[in-house]
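re: ur question from earlier - yeah i can do the single chain one, its not a big deal. heres the input i used so u can compare w yours
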Amino acid sequence: MISMWMTFNRSRLAASCLAALLTLAATCTYAQDDYDKVAQRSRANKRISGMRPMADGEHYSFRSRQGVSMRSYADRNSDSLLQTIPFAWTDYALSPDESSILTAEAAPLRTIYRRSYSTDWQLAPLGGEFRKVLEDARDVTFSPDGKSLAFARANNMYIFDIESGRTTPVTRDGERNRIINGTTDWVYEEEYGFTRAYAFSPDSRRLAYLRFDESRVPTASIVRYDFSERRDSTLTFKYPRAGEANSAVTLHIYDTADGSTLTVDTGSDTDQYIPRIFWTPAGELAYYRVNRRQNIFETVLLRADGTQKVIYREESPLYVERPDEGTITFIDNDRFLVREESTAGYMHLYLHSVERGRLNAVTSGPWEVTSLVAADTRNVWYISTEESPLRRTFYRTGLNGKGKKRLSEPEGWSSIAAGTGMKYFVKTRSSANEPDVVTVHRTDGRAVDTLADSRAAVAALGTAVRRDFFTFTTERGDELNAYMVLPRGFDPSRRYPVMLTQYSGPGSQQVRDRWSVDWEDALADHDIIVVCADGRGTGFRGEAFKKITTGRLGELEVEDQLSLARHMASQEYVDAGRIGIYGWSYGGFMALGCALKGDGLFKAAIAVAPVTSWRYYDSIYTEIYNGLPQENPSGYDDNSPVTFAGRLSDRTRLLIMHGSSDDNVHLKNTMEMTRALTRAGKRFEVMIYPDQNHSMMPDNTADIRRKMINFMIENL
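and the output i got, formated as tokens:
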């Protein structure tokens, strides 16, 4: 009897296994085909990249098939080859007088972090022969007079004289994981978004640079599992987590004439940030200064007589949005524009004077200026949310705030590349359901030419999924913006599964009237509804809406996503028992929080590269929103998914994925989550991608998306 039972069940087991394998193979094939279609549609959307405005305001340079070419804004058929480049290259720059070209070789390209790399550089007079001028150099730029190149190598700064070929060291104390000169440390690169930490004076005589002393910053390590090597290798680098020591940053000025170096007194606070340095049109050095709490931002001017003056100061009881190079823009020797939100509760432009302070508001209203495109002594060109928080529209107005004119369509999303002097601009416009169209315009907005129109190419690939916008009100009375992607052939009499996709980070925005294509679109072919909502803490709806999550990251944002899930579950066309959620990075932190606090509301959840405790993340990003952990421990611990791993419901299928070489959100986050879930006796899955970074590069950007498609099809 036992033998007969075993024989029967072995046979049934074998049949079941075969059926499962066939189903899995079919699913994998679907995911492969589905993602390939999504990627093909994404590639069909043509954008114009690499455009560099030229000095005359009538032309721009761009990367062409033979090298670098020039084109008139007024005539797309006017292309002329500026320089043939006979080797593999990754970037270029024309000299200030546009008589020569500098190129960065594509090999040997040595990536450092997300934005930084070093390589060899070649220089040529336009139309002439190249010569290699620098090896293993990074952050290379011409001096304003075009006679020299500044660059960094092995944490030191140098100046290369183009005519003589002589290299002069500016600093000599650079040392890995201790002293950095002229380039940024890891956390500045990641959170302030720049790597070149130096600037030439307009007369090319002085070179200001930042020096990072990171000797007190704790280290982090990443193990490399390169299978071409017999032994693993370890990358150790300085990474300040929340509450830990940052680099001590100082400001210096090197005189190219006499070789002397001046140390600038930036104040008594050594635990502060200096996120930008620049020279004004008057030839005076200015620098940003931000305190550790990041609720005070100042712009300081070093006067010609050696004195210093704070020309702008912003303070908030919560935090001041991280400043960037567009926060302060000089338009002449005395006047400058400031983009800030503390005055009106919305991000707006204000005109200031070095000598007289604030002069007037340039823009105002319950909407936000998202970027300053250009400015001269009479006019300002900017992009704003005046039509809708979901849209971006281009405007021109006078410095006095009068004479405003809209220069782009009120619908959709416009981005602008300005020509020198704003004689022309290039507009890239799309909407949620219409791909990019790239056009050239004169300064008054009149269209001159169309450079690219992706609509026909995208349409040729078949009917795209639609994104339809809606709003819903949470149980707490908050109205949130959202979009929905319905399955093809949607039948309201049926009941469909739903997947929530979100990011939810402070100041972010996912619900946008802008064309985008990613793996979630493939779910429409498998009868899965995709929904996205921007909850409290996200951006472009004013300071109060954005900053409400300060000090308690992951609390209100999770509440809002749970509200969205319940809202969708109440719809007649939704199967309330089949709701999933996905997120990457901050979104991964959120996906975990929702899966755990949802108490079975979600049937499936995917968290990619998730932060699992803000104690593990970097100082600048974490502390601006959550304060220091020494001062706000509950804000770090109460909403950490690690602390409530035991709440994961048995009905929730959870998949966590992480790259082992993620230098941004370290693998430690997933390891700690795994430990906590295991101790709680929970069922879950983990996928580690060896030697891949935060974006699953260099090898697995497509593979991870195919796996996510499979997971949601199988579990919803």
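Residues 2-44 form the longest helix (43 residues). not sure if urs matches, ping me
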